[in-house]
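Record type: monomer structure entry
Structure origin: computed from sequence
Chain ID: A
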Amino acid sequence: MSRPRRHWVMPVSIVLALLLGLLPLPPAIQPLRPYWLALVVAYWVIEDPERRGLGFAFITGLLADLAFGGLFGEQALRLVVMAYILQRFRARLRFFPMSQQALAIGGLLLNDRILTWVLHAALGLTPMPSAAWLAPLIGMLLWPIVFVLMDTARQGNWRKG
């Protein structure tokens, strides 16, 4: 007997990630905000590769660009680069223990920071604060929690009663 598909989980996860990205934070901890949308897109690219790939990452990034009001196309580029790397190494990454998977996601988030820095430097935009380089570490530490929560919602493994 197969489980019914929970089609609502993906759009709700994207909306929640966008809301977490828009949530006001004090200026001192604003640069430490994890890239929630990248964590959610990473989950979907890893767990549903037949339907969630580069196009999904691009459209999600454009939505983020509109929601965050930054440079149009920046989020789309960042998420497509991350999705491409994830697709390339997905077969190996899926079988890593959660600790190694978190390290790999941390590396991808660090790569995202480098891409953002290069893009801002090339366009002459304001550089990121130095504290922003800690955000990939926070995202790496959050990955196991995000993964388990999303997997539970997608598969419906929570207890009833």
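Annotation 1: The chain has one domain: 9-155.
Annotation 2: The chain has a mean pLDDT of 91.
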